[in-house]
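In response to reviewer comment 3 from the previous cycle, which asked for concrete evidence that the modeling workflow produces usable outputs, we include below a single protein chain processed end to end. The sequence was submitted unchanged, and the resulting structure tokens are shown without manual editing.
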Amino acid sequence: LAHQNFGEWFDRLSYREGPAFVSDTLVQSAGYERIALYTRNFLDAYLKDSRAGKSFLARSPEENGIPAGEATARYKTAAHPVPTAPSPPSAPAKPAG
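The workflow returned the following structure tokens.
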């Protein structure tokens, strides 16, 4: 999810003037709340297997109440992890005694 007030460049430039960054704290707060909303729904969807979280993520930002053009959601296919070498077989247990 992309938003102008979310990311390292906003943090670095938040006190500078410029057309790409919004200095109004109400707008900043709204942007932060929207990012937090998406983060919560992502975590609910994939850590709690929440149907509501997955439904939220499947909708467009506009369908989730974010004004048109303010945020963009892009989804990418996850890369599969590199295979690891199998663990060596464990030694047989020694009989007690």
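The chain has a mean pLDDT of 77. We consider this sufficient to address the reviewer's concern, and the full set will be provided in the supplementary archive.
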